[in-house]
């Protein structure tokens, strides 16, 4: 299923899959709400989804799909590649993140990979994530979060706010903020969402 608020993009993507024997476009939607409705009837195996759309954006749609149709794999296909967007999508559980300048062969391969349970990222995003997750050559190894910081990360991944983390771990909110500061430094990020995304990528949580 193709989900994009621009008709020309939907038509163009549909055309890119015409004649591909093992891939069939079963539906196309203009926004997240329409995509959720079509998912119930069309039952796609893979969704190619724009990130920024009216009514219900890509991440909001992914979260709803994950709850209602966990078997559906989602690949974000967007023009935006900043860290915040990538981190939000990864934290939401996408199977892929590609840019709209990807050649058709790359899109075909990505759909097949997602359908088989794999994950795919645009090459420039893979390079950036690798730089974030790996220490510079000759530099000190990246410090790993402590067991307590991992507990905080797990709660963040569940959507807990600072107050809820403090209550669950029987610590003060000030201590939670200190843990977050250390987590951000160790993972090389500057937001809660990015911290969760990197922790998931590194299989820390």
Automatic annotation (TrEMBL):
Keyword rRNA-binding assigned to the entry: answer is no
Q: Which Pfam families match?
A: GerE, Response_reg
Q: Which PROSITE patterns match?
A: HTH_LUXR_1 (PS00622), HTH_LUXR_2 (PS50043), RESPONSE_REGULATORY (PS50110)
Domain HTH luxR-type as annotated: residue spans = 138-203
UniProt keyword list: DNA-binding, Phosphoprotein, Transcription, Transcription regulation
Domain Response regulatory, which positions? 1-115
- Under which name does UniProt file this protein? Response regulator transcription factor
- Classification lineage: Bacteria, Bacillati, Actinomycetota, Actinomycetes, Streptosporangiales
């Amino acid at each position: 299923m193709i989900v994009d608020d621009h008709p020309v993009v939907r038509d163009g993507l549909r055309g890119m899959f015409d004649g591909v024997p093992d891939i069939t476009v079963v539906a196309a939607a203009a926004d997240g709400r329409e995509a959720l409705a079509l998912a119930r009837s069309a039952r796609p195996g893979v969704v190619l989804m724009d990130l920024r759309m009216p009514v219900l954006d890509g991440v909001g749609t992914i979260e709803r799909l994950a709850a209602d149709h966990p078997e559906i794999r989602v690949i974000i296909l967007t023009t935006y590649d900043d860290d915040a967007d990538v981190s939000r999508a990864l934290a939401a559980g996408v199977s892929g993140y590609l840019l709209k300048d990807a050649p058709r062969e790359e899109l075909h391969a990505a759909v097949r990979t997602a359908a088989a349970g794999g994950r795919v990222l645009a090459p420039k995003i893979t390079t950036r994530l690798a730089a974030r997750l790996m220490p510079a050559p000759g530099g000190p190894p990246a410090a790993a979060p402590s067991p307590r910081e991992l507990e905080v990360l797990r709660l963040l991944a569940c959507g807990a706010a600072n107050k809820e983390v403090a209550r669950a771990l029987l610590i003060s909110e000030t201590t939670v903020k200190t843990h977050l500061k250390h987590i951000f430094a160790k993972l090389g990020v500057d937001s809660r969402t990015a911290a969760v995304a990197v922790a998931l990528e590194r299989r820390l949580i």
